[in-house]
């Protein structure tokens, strides 16, 4: 008789960006600021829940920021599941950039803005209400959290509801993209992005990116 080693089974991951917020719509940087979904974001979350209603799903884990938790809760309510919270899935901390439009950031912090736009992954962001993270330290945090959650749940299908930056980090890890390269792929609100974690080599494999057919009439890219 063959014995299956459950700990060697791959983990299926659905990485989901939160629904739209008012700040997404006006291109205002959120970072760690706790902004709720707007009406469109709530609509997107409901459509997302419907799209996932028939899929196998063992766990739902969300960032502790409201926009992610609200999105996850819509999915959980439809499935009769509870939402677990992991603060390590938070968006990047942007320090003094948070709460500002791109144009305002460039005006107030020209040197830091230039380094950010030039993809200086070790650049320190100006202090603000929340701690600013370099992109490298954020990448290590986000991917470390994703890999740890996947390793802790072999053979399961889990939904991780997080933020645009977190999904970008997962995409870069799975595709082997250098952190310094520009982002040339879309990260849509309330999109479904499918990954597989192989415990044998702790690799993250991208199976499907940017599923948004469940959303109409529009989806938004950009800004965490």
Note down, in words, how this protein is organized.
- Helix 4 (about 100-110) crosses helix 5.
- The protein has helices at about 20-25, 40-50, 65-80, 100-110, 110-115, 135-150, 165-175; strands spanning about 10-15, 60, 85, 155-160, 190-200, 205-210.
- The mean pLDDT is about 95.
- The radius of gyration is 17 Å and the shape is globular.
- The protein has one domain (about 10-190): Rossmann fold (3-Layer(aba) Sandwich).
- It starts with 10 loop residues before the first strand and ends in a 13-residue tail after the last strand.
- The protein is built from seven helices and six strands; from the N terminus they run βααβαβαααβαββ.
SSE layout and pairings?
Elements: E1 11-17, H1 22-25, H2 39-51, E2 59-62, H3 66-79, E3 83-85, H4 102-108, H5 110-117, H6 135-151, E4 157-162, H7 164-175, E5 192-198, E6 203-211
Parallel strand pairs: 1-4, 2-3, 2-4
Antiparallel strand pairs: 1-5, 5-6
Helix pairs in contact: 2-3, 4-5, 6-7
List key phrases describing it:
alpha/beta; Rossmann fold; 7 helices; globular; PG/BPGM_mutase_AS; Histidine phosphatase family protein
Quick recap of the structure?
The chain has helices at 22-25, 39-51, 66-79, 102-108, 110-117, 135-151, 164-175, and strands at 11-17, 59-62, 83-85, 157-162, 192-198, 203-211. With 224 residues, the protein is α/β, with parallel strands linked by helices. A hairpin with a 4-residue loop joins strand 5 and strand 6 (203-211).
């Amino acid at each position: 008789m063959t014995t299956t080693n459950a700990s060697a089974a791959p983990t299926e991951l659905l990485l989901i960006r939160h629904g739209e917020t008012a700040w997404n719509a006006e291109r205002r940087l959120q970072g760690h600021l706790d902004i709720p979904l707007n009406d469109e974001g709530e609509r997107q979350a409901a459509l997302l829940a419907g799209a996932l209603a028939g899929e196998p799903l063992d766990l739902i884990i969300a960032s502790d920021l409201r926009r992610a938790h609200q999105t996850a809760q819509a999915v959980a309510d439809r499935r009769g599941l509870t939402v677990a919270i992991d603060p390590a899935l938070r968006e990047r901390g942007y320090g003094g950039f948070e709460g500002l439009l791109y144009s305002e950031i460039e005006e107030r912090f020209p040197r830091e803005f230039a380094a950010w736009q030039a993809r200086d992954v070790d650049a320190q962001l100006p202090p603000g209400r929340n701690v600013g993270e370099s992109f490298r330290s954020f990448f290590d945090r986000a991917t470390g959290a994703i890999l740890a959650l996947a390793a802790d749940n072999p053979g399961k299908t889990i939904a991780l509801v997080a933020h645009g930056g977190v999904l970008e980090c997962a995409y870069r890890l799975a595709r082997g993209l250098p952190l310094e390269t520009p982002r040339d792929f879309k990260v849509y609100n309330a999109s479904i992005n499918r990954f597989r974690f192989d415990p044998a080599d702790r690799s993250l494999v991208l199976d499907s990116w940017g599923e948004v057919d469940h959303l109409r009439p529009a989806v938004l890219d950009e800004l965490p």
